[in-house]
């Protein structure tokens, strides 16, 4: 919003941001350090599950991977039908 409407009136400003932000980080780190190991184990388990889902979905639905596969297929087809060029596949993408 700040980039789209830089002159728009914004009535709320965080008071003493120079103090509030670092204190928020310090207090949250303090609370995290007092957690028991069971909570950290749950965090790690759910983090691993989330990362597996995230990367599995990304691998299957990646637009860049589809473009790369298409590029490779085109170059392989070109090289097979032009024997003078050899069977070298150049994967230099811009």
Based on the model shown, name its key terms:
mainly alpha; 0% strand; 2 domains; 94 residues; flat
Concise structural overview:
The chain is built from three helices and no strands. It has helices at 17-33, 37-61, 63-81.
Overview of this structure, please?
The longest helix has 25 residues, at about 35-60. The protein has helices spanning about 15-35, 35-60, 65-80. The chain is built from 3 helices and no strands. The mean pLDDT is about 85. It folds into 2 domains: about 15-60; about 60-94, no CATH class.
Radius of gyration from the alpha-carbon trace, in angstroms: 26 Å
Count helical runs. Answer: 3
Question: Mind describing the biggest β-sheet?
Answer: none
Helix content estimate = 55-70%
End-to-end Cα distance = 33 Å
Helix/strand class:
mainly alpha
Estimate the strand proportion.
Answer: under 5%
How many beta-strand segments? 0
Shape: flat
Question: How many distinct folded domains?
Answer: 2
Order of H and E elements: HHH
Which whole number gives the mean pLDDT? 84
Topology:
Blueprint (H helix, E strand, L loop, with lengths): L16 H17 L3 H25 L1 H19 L13
């Amino acid at each position: 919003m700040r980039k789209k409407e830089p002159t728009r009136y914004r009535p709320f400003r965080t008071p003493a941001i120079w103090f509030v932000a670092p204190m928020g980080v310090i207090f949250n780190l303090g609370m995290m350090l007092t957690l028991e190991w069971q909570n950290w184990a749950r965090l790690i388990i759910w983090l691993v599950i989330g990362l597996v889902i995230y990367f599995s979905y990304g691998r299957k639905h990646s637009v860049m991977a589809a473009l790369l596969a298409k590029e490779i297929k085109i170059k392989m087809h070109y090289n097979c039908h032009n024997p003078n060029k050899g069977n070298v596949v150049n994967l230099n993408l811009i």
